[in-house]
Amino acid sequence: MININENDSLISLKVYEPKGERQIKYIATTKEWHDRVNGNSYFSTRIEDIEKDLMYILPFQYGYETQSEYITSQLLRKLDKTIVHGNIKHIKINRCLKKEVVEHGQGQEENYNSQLKYYYQD
To answer: Is the pLDDT of residue 18 over 70?
Structure first.
């Protein structure tokens, strides 16, 4: 990991080794759209499983504030019994277009798990 401060030049970069074992197992990227006409928020999420090199996709759905984080955590607890909150890196992109959010949450129909309501892909 490289930390750069405003006082550092390219010559004086400080490189730090990560401490301990990698803690993050999943990276969840959420795109959010706010319907200004009706006042509702919607999201879709792509969850990258770093260890298994898989992607889980939560389709376009209603939710606001931290709802996407809650739904992501619920799904991952069902898939991985050893998961803890610190194993998930949440990234949220606000103010997206509806089209972007819908596309972000689309997967292949044959990879849809109707019981847990997500897509997966290799």
So the answer is: no
